[in-house]
Amino acid sequence: MKKLLSVCVFALLLPLAASANSKFQQGKHYDVIAEQTTAKAEVKEYFSFYCGGCNAFEPIAQSLAKKLPADAEFKKVHVDFIRAASPEIQNALARAYLVAKSQGKGDQVASAIFKQIHRNRAPFSNENDIRNLVLINDIDAETYDKAMKSFSVRGAANQMKKEQDELSEKRILTGVPMLVVNGKYKINNAALDKRNMEAELQELVNYLLQKDA
User: Fold this and answer.
1) What is the span of the domain harbouring residue 160?
2) Strands of the sheet with 42-47, listed across from one edge
3) What pLDDT was estimated at residue 36?
4) Thioredoxin domain: from which residue to which, for each copy (predicted)?
5) Per-residue b or e along 6-43, where b marks 16 or more CB atoms closer than 10 Å to that residue's CB
6) Residue 15 — pLDDT band, cuts 50, 70, 90?
7) CA-to-CA dists, residue 86 to 15, 24, 64, 82, 133, angstroms
8) Does 190 fall in a domain?
9) The whole model's pTM is what?
10) Looking at residue 71, which CATH number applies to its domain?
């Protein structure tokens, strides 16, 4: 009986031991920014198409999204505080990305937008410029035009703006790209090993996804 009790206690202590032995430290690799986790597992990236760092990070973000556990979702939240374009153009870009994502082409269109801004050095002057780029990336014109004006897409873009403002006011969102896991843990990118960033980031994200499980 005593032996069985010892085995049970050891099993209960395993998660605590694993947590204690983790190489990732609160306050260094990540910060706690909320008391509760989201109802569903998620990794959220706050970014801007006009951010050079976000452009460089995009391949890592797309790779990370593909390697998440099946029950976790990767979400992108576009911010508009980088003063490289008007708020209207930045809102249109956010909506264009949301439309592309709904059509299963989010990564393709995001990469095309980044390329247009950072490699081609061809800024968007108006919403029609954005439309033209999206349409050559295999999005049907009628589908795009209808979705861009839809309540769901406009509502999702407005939600991005709301989250941006709330986190900025709390001084949590101070720059991009920024990753938040399960709505509770903000990853500190500067603490990651630059020589092995993608692999270490994947490890840290998986650790945080399981932290409250």
Assistant:
1) 39-210
2) 30-32, 185-187, 178-181, 42-47, 73-78
3) 97
4) 11-153
5) eeeeeeeeeeeeeeeeeebeeeebbeeeeeebeeebbb
6) very low
7) 49, 39, 30, 9, 18
8) yes
9) 0.89
10) 3.40.30.10
